[in-house]
Write a structure and sequence with these properties.
The chain is built from 9 helices and 9 strands. It is an alpha/beta fold. It has one domain: NAD(P)-binding Rossmann-like Domain (Rossmann fold, 3-Layer(aba) Sandwich), CATH 3.40.50. It has a 7-stranded parallel beta sheet, with helices on both faces. The longest helix is centred in the middle third of the chain and has 29 residues. The chain binds NADPH dihydro-nicotinamide-adenine-dinucleotide phosphate.
Length: 287
């Protein structure tokens, strides 16, 4: 009993240790943000703009990206531009990174945040849809990382991967989405170990998010989840902060995500009771 308690005490100590984040850490940094046309990615772009970073934003919808870039320039970005395209296209990740290389000749931070559409319901057996989602939500993250790594090694920069509680704990009605997020955890945690062994000074931060009030998330699950979603603006700032501080993992919102993960770690196999409003049923979730 002593060793797990000691582990818990140490974890709590390091969790609450004071951290000296300073917004000036981002001034003049060259940052790519994916999925920046809406939701959390858009808010990340606005915070970075206020912090006077150089920004390269990407998503599919050009009209939205144009507006976000305009707003970023108003907010004080050192520079802001966009490349539009779909991460379903296997050549697109390299196109985005090449744009950064041609414009800046280097890169300090890569924030991988985009996701493709996935339905919230029983898995319908469509393997093609899982494959497509893996391409968008997982393989494009790998491809962006591979293309950006030479520049990030040079700048001793940071990779920030936006994931979810669904990438740590399986839950019903999100099988394909959850698979792509578990894949991110496996890949980037392994890569982090390799960086340490090889003395590559590029940090990898995995952001484990709970329910956040973006338009798409609220539209998809507000009829299922009763709890109030956390604000996307604060979430975006925490993502930047954890990346700048080179943290291994961010849990946001800390209370909700932290307690779920703690329960799973100290009592694996335990069950919690959940209510699915959409399907009018109560089910047990195995941690
Ligand atoms: P949104 O749906 O609001 O934004 C998704 C972004 O990805 C948009 O900019 C969208 O722009 C872009 N996108 C969609 N499809 C593609 C594609 N094929 N190629 C390139 N870009 C694409 O998502 P959120 O802001 O809610 O989520 C952001 C991140 O946070 C995701 O990784 C998500 O898994 C994670 N997260 C969110 C939670 C939440 O409750 N909101 C909870 C847990 C994790 P466009 O349509 O213009 O391409």
């Amino acid at each position: 009993i002593f060793i797990p308690l000691l582990g818990l005490a140490l974890a709590l100590y390091f969790y609450s240790a004071p951290e000296n984040f300073n917004e000036e850490m981002l001034r003049g940094k060259r940052v790519i943000v994916t999925g920046a046309s809406s939701g959390i990615g858009e808010q990340v772009a606005y915070h970075l703009a206020r912090m006077e970073a150089h920004l390269l934003l990407t998503a599919r919808t050009e009209a939205k990206l144009q507006k976000v870039v305009e707003r970023c320039l108003e907010l004080g970005a050192a520079s802001a531009r966009y490349v539009s395209g779909s991460m379903e296209d296997t050549t697109f990740p390299a196109v985005v990174v090449r744009e950064a290389e041609n414009t800046w000749g280097g890169l300090d931070m890569l924030i991988l945040n985009h996701i493709g559409y996935s339905y919230f319901n029983y898995f319908n057996g469509d393997v093609g849809q899982v494959r497509k989602l893996l391409e968008t939500n997982f393989l494009s993250y790998v491809a962006m990382t591979v293309s950006a790594l030479p520049m990030l090694k040079e700048s001793e920069g940071s990779i920030v991967v936006v994931s979810s509680v669904a990438g740590k704990i399986g839950s019903p009605f999100a099988a394909s989405y959850s698979a792509t997020k578990f894949a991110l955890e496996g890949f980037f945690s392994s890569l982090r170990h390799e960086f340490i062994i090889d003395k590559v000074n590029v940090s990898i931060t995995l952001c484990i998010l709970g329910y956040i009030n973006t338009e798409n998330a609220v539209r998809a699950i507000s009829h299922v989840i009763r709890s109030t979603p956390a604000p996307k603006e604060e979430c975006a700032l925490e993502i930047i902060r954890s990346g700048a501080l080179r943290q291994r993992e961010l849990h946001y919102p800390p209370g909700a995500v932290g307690s779920l993960l703690l329960l799973r770690n100290i009592a694996p196999g335990s069950r919690i009771c959940c209510q699915c409003l959409a399907h009018q049923q109560v089910f047990l979730l195995d941690l």
